[in-house]
Design a protein that fits this description.
The chain contains 18 helices and 18 strands. Its EC number is 3.2.2.6.
Length: 654
């Protein structure tokens, strides 16, 4: 994840969820060769998150409200291993200071939570008084997760402070998960009650008893040390909101069961198998009333296979009794009585609509472990709604989102299932399948000058073995090829002359090619990755790059120049790190107005950054580590630029 700091208490796990967060300090930091380098954070980047809002729902501002004394407790950084009761009334309790946050954010986050079936506590019926009464305490303790939106005026409200004390006590006593969001405020200021936040807090403390003040201080210090989200670390509001909602949903549906059952080395017992299934199906360790026999029958069919219990539990999650009754006959006929895992997974796959099945196969055969944004960008024109399909697959436990790396991940068995389904499209003629993953079959298809391979849309060689194919016309018959990953040096560089013009993804590691041919047309290209290539330049002419969003040429040490980027108006991420022969960037880079990440680390011969870079006003991250030849003054840079390193001979224009 972006900008994670090193000082945090660790992920907090309860029967709710775990959300990795950003934390602590005035600046981001990056470790390079053992040296921590500060990251300048601009006012513009912070101001962008003025859009960050709050759960509004007619909640009135809670400032200037008094609260009665609450019982003190000793708060620790790490929550105990105990878990909340299974009959939690709510999934998420939000705590915030309404004056500081805007309506837009909360309407968006509530919509996202609703679409992910997350129950958010709304307290608009609780009357505000001088104390947080039994109703609110019950709501806090009856929620699996508390989200604390810490803003600069949060400490101006005794209501908020006492609410926070109750939340932190609940965290200590019953293991409630607490998720802080640091909104336009530094965690250090909260932890030490300093700067503007400290000034507001001291004003609130006037006339209060010392015992009450100490409880507030302990709660603020402890919540600031929990790993949390820092609003300044996010490029846009929608990305942050979706990330939080997806993470919350994943942890509600998946992490609670796994935290209880991760210790299994062998198969669980029958009772444990039922508990595992129920955690995914009902969010508790036992069946809901009226579902006892149905749940037991499903478990008897699935057997004691943890992955099968997870997938089938997710399949039935939220279904009515009639839906269970209608699905069971199909399940009986579809599954082998011994609970064969392939049959269980296939049953869940067969329940998908046609579009979601296609998305499942695309991920299994090509996009597994790829970043969410890249998958959505590359498949945007192939599906009516990639994001919706991704959520469907996640809810059915057919994929998961790695929150540390932001990648879509599918288990090995599910990948095998997807590739088996594709293989069965044409067992004996691989050229008639949609995707090719086997290196031997790929060589066979690329070497056959006569076979019709127009069905192939994706080729994915994941091993680092070379694919031996010397034919210059290897790709000539693959008219519909859209996704190509070919690591290694075994493919004839001249074969690119015949590559499909429908190509959306080209990943060619260690390529021997020195320049793309003049007839190469990247019109539909979304991602270009040529790491460790022998490229000296990409191409001569100006090419249509309107769809290009991700370009990675890192470690191409012979690369001397970039092409005209005047049409790359949607370029999002450009990685040129370790391109040690690169001397300058083209002035047309200023046309990349949507560029957000520019990686130039270890471009040791880079001497010039053109003034037009100032037009790329959306740049959020730029690495200039070890650009030892960059002797000239930089042009005016976008206010949102993050400089990940300072060079002794680098000057910034005012």
């Amino acid at each position: 994840m972006l900008g994670r700091s090193t000082d945090y208490a660790g992920p907090q796990i309860s029967c709710g969820k775990v959300i990795p967060m950003f934390h602590d300090g005035n600046f981001l930091s990056s470790s390079v060769n053992g040296i921590t380098v500060p990251c300048c954070v601009s006012a513009a980047a912070i101001c962008f998150y003025a859009l960050l809002g709050t759960v509004f729902f007619n909640r009135k501002s809670r400032s200037h409200q008094e609260n009665k004394t609450m019982a003190s407790s000793s708060l620790t950084r790490l929550a105990p291993p105990s878990s909340l009761p299974p009959n939690c009334k709510h999934q998420v309790f939000p705590s915030f200071h309404g004056v500081d946050v805007l309506e837009n954010f909360l309407s968006h986050i509530v919509k996202e939570f609703k679409s992910n079936a997350i129950d958010l506590f709304i307290d608009n019926n609780i009357e505000r008084s001088k104390s947080i009464g039994p109703a609110l305490i019950e709501a806090i303790r009856g929620s699996r997760v508390a989200i604390v939106l810490l803003s600069k005026n949060y400490a101006s409200s005794t209501w908020c402070l006492n609410e926070l004390v109750e939340i932190m006590e609940c965290r200590e006593e019953v293991g409630q998960t607490v998720i802080p969001i640091f909104y336009q405020v530094n965690p250090t200021d909260i932890k030490k009650q300093k700067s503007y936040f400290g000034k507001v807090f001291r004003k609130t403390c006037k006339g209060k008893r010392n015992e009450e003040i100490q409880r507030w201080k302990h709660a603020l210090t402890d919540v600031a040390q929990i790993e949390g989200y820092h609003s300044i670390n996010w490029f846009n509001e929608s990305e942050m909101i979706e990330y939080i909602a997806t993470d919350v949903s994943n942890k509600l549906n998946l992490s609670a069961p796994s935290s209880d059952f991760d210790g299994f080395v062998n198969f669980p017992s029958d009772d444990e198998a039922l508990q595992m299934f129920c955690m995914y199906a009902f969010d508790q360790k036992y069946p809901k009333d009226g579902f006892e026999e149905l749940a037991c029958e499903v478990v008897s069919l699935v057997g004691r296979l943890p992955l099968g219990l997870k997938v089938m539990g997710s399949y039935f999650r939220g279904s009515f009794e009639q839906e269970w009754t209608e699905a069971l006959p199909k399940l009986r006929t579809h599954l082998d009585r011994d609970g064969e895992i392939a049959s269980i997974l296939k049953f869940s796959y067969d329940s998908l609509c046609d579009e979601d099945k296609r998305l499942f196969l695309h991920i299994a055969c090509f996009f597994n472990c790829e970043k969410v944004g890249i998958v959505e960008d590359c498949l945007a024109k192939c599906f009516s709604d990639v994001r919706h399909g991704r959520r469907v697959l996640a809810k059915k436990s057919l994929i998961s989102i790695n929150m540390d790396w932001g990648t879509i991940e599918m288990t090995r068995l599910l990948v095998q299932l997807g590739r088996k389904i594709v293989r069965e499209q044409s067992v004996n003629e691989p050229g008639k399948r949609q995707f090719l993953n086997d290196a031997i079959e790929i060589c066979e298809v690329l070497s056959d000058d006569r076979a019709d391979s127009s069905s192939v849309i994706g080729i994915n060689v994941e091993t680092y073995e070379d694919v031996e194919c010397t034919s210059e016309r290897a790709f000539e018959r693959l008219h519909n090829l859209q996704f190509l990953r070919i690591p290694g040096k075994g493919v004839n560089p001249q074969s690119i002359n015949y590559i499909s013009q429908k190509l959306k993804v080209l990943i060619w590691l260690n390529s021997e090619m020195t320049c793309f041919p003049s007839n190469f047309n990247p019109k539909f290209l979304v991602k270009l990755e040529m790491m460790s290539s022998k490229l000296k330049k990409l191409w001569e002419e100006t090419k249509p790059l309107n769809n290009l969003k991700w370009m990675n040429l890192s470690r191409s040490r012979r690369l001397e120049e970039l092409p005209d980027l005047s049409t790359a108006t949607n370029l999002y991420d450009l990685d040129l790190s370790y391109c040690s022969s690169l001397v300058k960037l083209p002035s047309s880079i200023g046309n990349a107005i949507n560029l957000q990440s520019l990686h130039l680390s270890f471009c040791s011969n880079l001497v010039e950054i053109p003034p037009s870079i100032g037009n790329a006003v959306n740049i959020k991250k730029n690495s200039l580590i070890h650009c030892s030849s960059l002797l000239v003054s930089l042009p005016p840079l976008p206010d949102s630029l993050f400089l990940l390193a300072y060079q002794p001979n680098l000057r910034l224009a005012s």
